[in-house]
Amino acid sequence: MASAINPVPDKIIEAYNMVDVGPKEIQTSQGLDAIYDTVATTKSNVKAFAPVINASLSAFGQSDVGITMKEGIDNFYHGMPVLMKALHELKDLHPFVGVAVLAFETVYTLVKKRHENDKKVIMLYVEMKDTVSVLLRLKDVQNEKLIGPDGITIEDHLKSLVKQTAEDIKVCSNVCDTYMKKRPLAKVILSPSWDDKFIGFAKLFTQRRQDFQHELSVHITQGVDKANAKLDAIEDTTKALDQKLNVLKDVLRELASPEHNRLWEDIERKGGIKSVRENDEMLRNLERTASKTSSVSSAKGRPTKLVHEDPNTKVDNLRNDIFEDPDAAAEKNRVVFYRKFEEQKDQIVSRMTAVVNRASDRVVRELSGGPHERIRDKSIHEIWKEMVVTFQGWRGNVKARHLVLSLRDHFLETLCPENDDIFSKGIAEVSTHNPDAWAIKYVNAAQLQPMTEAIDDDASGFISIAEMNRFTSSRPREWSLPHWVAFWAVGYKTSIIDYANMIERLFGKMDSLYYEVLPPNRGSIMTYFFNVWMFIHALITPVLRLQSEPNDLEKFIPYLKEEETRLGNSLKRVEFIIDGADTLTLITGAGRIEKTIFPLLYLLMKRHYEVMRTMLTKIVDPRELKQGIDSLLCIEEAIRYRVDRLTNNFSQQKLDIKKQFENFAFGIFQYFHDEKALWSGDYVRGLAPLYMPYDNVDEDQNVKPEEILRYECQDKLALDEWVYDGHTIDDVPDYRDVPLPLRDILGHWHGYFYEDNGTHQIAGIDTMMTFVLEPGVSEQGIKANAWSNRGRYTISGSWSKDENDVMSVKLKMSFPEGYWMFPVAYWNPRSFNGRFDPKRQALTGVWGDPSDPENPCGQMEFRRIPPRYLSVYPSIKELSDNKPRALWKFAIAAVQNDIRRERWSWSYFSQRRDDREAVLSMTCRLGNFGELLYEEDTQRLRTALQRLTPADACFYGSKTNHKNAYTTFHWNAYCDSCMRCIIGDRLFCLDCVNKDTEVFNPIDLCSNAQCISQRVTYRQDIEGTHEPTHRLVRVHILVYNYQYGYVHSSASEAYKRVERFCKRIAEVSQESQEKENSQTTGDTNSSSSVPEPALVDSKTVSGNDKPVDGVITPDGAQDGAENTSWTEDAGDTSRGLEVEIPQDATDALPPQSPAVDMPKCANVNCKGPPILSFPCWYCIYCPDDLFICDACETEGVPDPEHSSMKHTKTHHLIRCLAPAKDEDTAPSTEQRLVSIEDRLDSMQSRFDDLNGRFGGFDGRLNDLSHRLDVLCGQFGNIEQLLHGLVGTARS
User: Among 336, 665, 703, 876, fewest CB within 10 Å belongs to which?
Assistant: First the structure.
């Protein structure tokens, strides 16, 4: 009984833990000495700890179950080494329980490797712990083959139960691992679903404990009375467990963190989960709030403008993560977790079976002699013992500097005993008879820093006995201690320099591959660079500045190769996927991350490079590199976690943190602590990337795509033309053998997603969908293939019939990931819950998120009406408002469509064309890409989507997918004018620079003429204001920070080259303008009524025209025809001033700049003038001064790679503007004052002239007044005459 067990003091348990697993990091020797004294007096009574395990079995019998559960969570790690030791002893006694013990030890080891764990997750691990603890009762069974009262051995009874428990532990741990990977906001919004999942596992482990207790009671107890008593005890325990399950939900709510509760309250204030799900901006704001309150270290101090992310894509990814069903998420994570689980299990088995004994190791037999007795290495033991005895100062830890210097003295004395006067002679003169004597020269004060860091894992400045034991036991088996110390003194530095250079070369090779791979693959490579290059560059930059020193490198190479092989094998076992801190530690082993970070990065990037090589001939699924990105970002998070820990440590020691990071680990973390010190504008503009031309001959020829790719690849990006093959979507399977009522719902169904009120979707971009229902695997199961603009996808579900003969149908739609589809990055699963209406032949119900069935998003209805008719069928709301009117309108529209379709009318085909163009051009723009989509455009798009049949929608979706795959999306740039992500061509300013206190972030513009002509004044991080006249670089492909320095320097040089051409173009334009003015004749007063003749090239004049000196006379334009082949629209000023040059006007050109030497547009089909005008574009790479006029560049030069200039889309352009005139230069202050005085004098003269003119107006007004008086007198006389005439007529 638990009450008969004497409680074991917590101090004893903690002390035993330290003996068993090594002491914790303790900063003062006094604390360690106190623990050592406790250990020395209690080690002999270890067996007394076993009853502690049994005591935990009756913990739930206490009155307050909730408090007991919380205490179990808080004390989960407490006493775990003792439990594991007891379980190992039990496994030796009864091997059949080993499968469950090993499973629990595996998941426990993985949990310890996480940086942080949620209390809800720990609650489940407590359940696992209590379950396996029940097995300890088997210690009373000496022979598991003994036959019990029922004639069956205990092993046969428990074997299958133990195996099932091990599988339960594995499955539950996968769910916990999935939950821990979710972002904080996702955990909050779907907390009810996750809590139900956790409660289910708690019930499962509770049942397992009852099963174990029942089976054990039958075999362990003897006699019926004892058995009945035991069964009564089990019944009491069952009641207690039921009570526990009743309060479990309340406990889970109390386990929620304060941040969790605040987020939940915020969601409730915003209208609940449904409102959040439907509002992108609300979701973004909640995510920002959750990120700020999250304790994840990777979110701290990171510049927000270094890598831009599409906000719409981010919301879609966030929504997908939040509303992903827990079961679906766990299933998606299962393969990765099981792989990690098996690797950890193998390592545990290997550790238990393989014991490495070194010649220098000693056996720790007793602890009564002092703290040095816990040291394993003989040399260190002697040094520590001597210092304890001699100076009475070294106890549990020692200053790192003292230890290193003592090591040096010890090595000199032991390795070179024949040198009596070692210290006076110096190391260079020491005899080298001992094979390890070469290492002595590296153990000195100059190498104090790297040697200290190698031993002092927590960078506290003190080395504990546990740290020293870990250091000595981690060396290669055949290496001596001096050899191992020498490696960390000088060999490690040389190795990271080599790895840093190899990583830099890999980036150069990846960069060159970008231009060689198939176009749909380029986005994946760019995404890779945007996400990983900056943090890796920040890591290796300090190392690239180091100089390799000549040393005994050949003595270290075997270990480096062995370590690289070990890391490579570990990565292969997890398929090069690192999904968290536990997996990372599993691969690298325990200890500081900087020990293995460089070879690990190199091996991962080498793998990713091989994936990129397959992109030369195959279209590779973007998820291949996406998983590689996630793995590298997990490493970045581990680095930032390490930096945070070091920062806190340095701060507690009151050290200069900046200087410490400059020196610690050769400075590899300094730019993670202070990123602005690296990412300044000057630094980025000065970057010179290492370009490594790709040559397949130099690469590994044995790499096969099927060996490194996890997903299917394609030879080309295929379109969904199968929808038009005449049978795939039209054939109806034979369901005559299917029994009723299931047969009634099988076959084709077509329908829409509707809003809550029954109207067509307002916010979504879904089209009509079609699916073909078929019988499922189970009796009540159904399945279907479906298609719409989401592509081809699958549906699973079930049906049932209630007592009223109403047939209910539940469906779950699982959509494929849109690899290049925008604006949606991932299609979220959707559910349908409704019933079958046999009279209307309809499936009517609601749709929503599978993980939140209580909150549907809207109505949904499927009919058997052919899609071409359903496209004009009234919505649910229209039918409910006025059904006769709605059906009458439907009949008219359906008949009209049939007539237009059957007659092949132009209106039918033109509408299909317009709908196709709207879908292909606007779908991408709807997602914040390219030109802004106005309300009328959005309405046009949604109307077009509603009219599409599922077949057309599926095909157009694949066309959009194909188009986007070949379109450049500048993920790292948003237009600073229209604020949208740039698609197509990107322009950035060379003149605008960031302030010294800001990180690099250039002025970016899209290719829209209005944006190019705008001033940018809101950017506070920029010196001054961006002006439309600034120098601009135009790029057709993605340019990221890695390339920016080279592009900037090349563009600056190009501007110097093009300056003389711009001056000549300006001179010719001025001469042409003067020539035009001299040829313009006619009376000034009549010029407004007679159109001015246009200057043209005589070669372009048609036969009906009559050119006279290059001027078309009115007779030549008798029909009002104008030559508009290259005349700019008067309303468009985006191209600047274009001057039309007559053929004979070239005679007037200056002799030093004849027209034949003037630059021309490189487009051979250019319709512009023969001589360029401003603005125009100049290639910064082509060696023969290639120009492109603005019109051709806007429209796109056809097949530029086939031009004689060898110009391609990968070449960048600069914008050429008219050079500023001399008088336009800024005048001096005196000149400005004189100019102002002249302008004032001119204004005074104009005022005087106005006064004179007003005086003249006064005279004219007086004259007019006199003339009006005369007219009034004349009118009076006329009136009198009229009166006289009237009187005469009457008489």
Answer: 703
Q: pLDDT tens digit string along 1260-1276?
A: 777 777 777 777 777 76
What percent of the chain clears pLDDT 90, i.e. is strictly above it?
28
Radius of gyration of the chain measured on its C-alpha atoms: 41
DSSP H or E run through 398: strand 397-399
Per-residue pLDDT of 837-865, as tens digits, reads: 999 999 999 998 887 788 888 999 999 99
Q: How open is the CA angle 802-804-806, to the nearest 5 degrees?
A: 65
A 10 A CB-CB count for 889 gives: 15
> What percent of the chain is predicted at pLDDT more than 70?
75
Distance of CA 408 to the CA centre of its chain: 49
Whether 1095 and 1142 have beta carbons less than 8 Å apart is answered as yes
- Considering Cα of 1159, then 1164, then 1170, then 1173, what sign does the dihedral take? negative
Tens digit of each residue's pLDDT (9 = 90 or more) over 294-344: 544 333 333 333 333 443 345 666 677 777 888 888 888 888 888 888 888
SS (H, E, C) 722-733: HHHCCCCCCCCC
Q: Name 388's bridge partners.
A: none
Closest CA to 175 of 316, 325, 66: 325
d(CA 410, CA 380): 9
**Whole-number average pLDDT of the chain:** 77
From CA 577, how far away is CA 626, in angstroms rounded?
10
How much of the chain is helix, strand and coil, in % rounded to 5? 55, 10, 35
DSSP character at residue 488: I
Q: CA distances (Å), 923 to each of 149, 315, 793, 918, 929, in order?
A: 73, 17, 20, 8, 9
CA 535 from centroid of its chain's CA atoms: 14
> Rounded to an integer, what is the distance from CA 914 to the centroid of its chain?
36
Nearest to residue 326, comparing CAs of 115, 181, 168?
181
648: exposed, middle or buried (Cβ count in 10 Å: 0-12, 13-18, 19+): exposed
Q: What is the DSSP string of 1082-1100?
A: S-TTTTTTSPPPPB--GGG
Asked if 159 contacts 100 with a C-beta cutoff of 8 angstroms, the reply is no
In the block, which residue shows the tokens 């379980």?
87
> Alpha-carbon distance 488 to 551, whole Å?
12
Query: How many other C-beta atoms lie within 10 A of the C-beta of residue 529?
Result: 21
Q: How far apart are CA 1094 and CA 825, in angstroms?
A: 53
Pairwise CA distance, residues 192 & 442, whole Å: 60
CB atoms within 10 A of CB 364: 13
Neighbours of 736 (CB within 10 A): 6
What is the Cα–Cα distance from 897 to 907, expressed in whole angstroms? Answer: 10
State the helix-helix crossing angle for 581-588 and 623-652, rounded to 10 degrees: 80
Give the type of residue at 18. M
Q: Sign of the CA dihedral 84, 87, 91, 97? A: negative
**Alpha-carbon distances of 271 from 267, 275, 756, 851, 963, rounded to whole Å:** 7, 5, 16, 19, 39
The three-class DSSP label of residue 813 is strand
DSSP 8-state class, residue 1072: H
CA-wise closest residue to 402 among 374, 415, 385, 383: 383
> For the whole model, what pTM was predicted?
0.73
Closest to 972 in 3D by CA, of 964, 963, 982: 982
Phi, psi (rounded to 5 degrees) for 750: -135, 140
Element (H, E) at 1267: helix 1229-1290
* Alpha-carbon distance values, 546 to 500, 666, 667, 761 (Å): 10, 8, 10, 61
**Across the chain, how many H-helices and E-strands are there?**
44, 20
